[in-house]
From TrEMBL:
One of its GO terms (cellular component) is fungal-type vacuole membrane. This is DNA, SC103. It comes from Aspergillus oryzae (strain ATCC 42149 / RIB 40). InterPro entries: DUF3712, Tag1. PANTHER family: CHROMOSOME 16, WHOLE GENOME SHOTGUN SEQUENCE (PTHR35895), PTHR35895:SF2.
Amino acid sequence: MSISSNNTAVLNREQFVEALTKAVYSKQFKLSAKGSTTGHLGALKAPVTLDKDVELAGLDKLSGFSIDTASLILPAEEDGTNLRGTATLPNHSVVTFALVSQFID
C-alpha cells in the first residue's frame, strides 16, 4: 500500500485552528478520516471506503519544551537572523503537521 503526500488547501480556517488547538493542547485527541478510492491488487480491483475516528496522543500543551541554547547575533545577519539556538520539542504523537505562514482564502 502506498499513500502519496499531497498539499491541501485549508477550506475552513476556524475549523482547522480548532483541530490544531486540540492536537497541541490535549493529551489525547480524535482525528477523523473519511474518503473513498479504488484499491488495486494486481488485476483485482475493489472499492475502498474509509470513515474512521482514531484516538491519538496529543502534544500535551508542549510539555517537555525547552530552549537549550540561545545566542543573540549583533549585528543581525544579512537575511535578518538575529537569534540562533537549540530548542527541544518532544512529539508524543504519530501526527506531524507541516505548516506555511499563510492561509489561502
